[in-house]
Amino acid sequence: MDAQKPIVIGVTGGSASGKTSVARAIFDNFSGHSLLLLEQDSYYKHSDLPFEERRKINYDHPLAFDTPLLHQQLTDLIARRPIEKPVYDYTIHNRASEVVHVAPRDVIIVEGILILADETLRDLMDIKVYVDTDDDIRVIRRIKRDMAERGRSLDDVIQQYLTTVKPSYHQFIEPTKRYADIIVPEGGRNTVAIDLLVTKIRAILAERGLRE
Fold it and tell me: Domain Phosphoribulokinase/uridine kinase, which positions (predicted)?
């Protein structure tokens, strides 16, 4: 392994599967360490379409993401170069005008529904994690989240789930499970899987001479 190279951990799964809970559990286990989270959602493409047309875009399709930009910025972070990360505004279904300055870190967690769908992204990852959660649980979580945090109506959330989210999950996201090194049922509640991940990360940190 390359000494001093950051550790890149990919965490994926369906919408509302618990990816963030797994990422947060890793964060909590490395409190005070040099670590950052890079969300694929930040890399939705900018659109010049009117708002009503943007609402109809399939945001669970690989073409909805600016994957080349994500790959370039992840490559920069691995090379210890800072980036200007884009910001996505869910209320307007579009990329915001501001960016966020992100400095390199020793541990990089890349989280998103389709991060394992692209071979160039997979090749940058040291550990690939798939969070496997039942469809019924995911749709209930999504309804609660989108209504509370993203200003969506119940009808809007259900319509989007049935027309794009669910079909895209089975067509594009679930097949990427075969690329995962670790499959985590139940997300952040699976303490055994989290402990295994943390142990592996500590081992790689030691191998690369990255102090915890």
Answer: 8-192
Residue 16 marked as a ligand binder:
yes
CATH of the domain at 194: 3.40.50.300
The amino acid at residue 34 is: S
Whose structure tokens read 């900018």?
46
Is 206 annotated in some ligand binding site?
Answer: no
Asked if residue 103 belongs to a known ligand binding site, the reply is no
Kindly indicate the confidence band of residue 16, based on its pLDDT and cuts at 50, 70 and 90: confident
Neighbouring residues of 130: CB distance < 8 A, sequence distance ≥ 6: 12, 13, 116, 176, 177, 179, 180, 182, 183, 184
Condensed to tens digits (0 to 9), the pLDDT of residues 124-169 reads 999 999 999 888 888 888 889 888 887 788 888 888 888 888 999 9
Residue 17 labeled ligand binder: yes
The reply to whether 15 sits in an annotated binding site is yes
According to the annotation, is 209 in a ligand binding site?
no
Segments forming the whole domain that contains residue 179: 7-203
- Structurally, how many domains does the chain consist of? 1
Q: Kindly report the pTM of this predicted structure.
A: 0.87
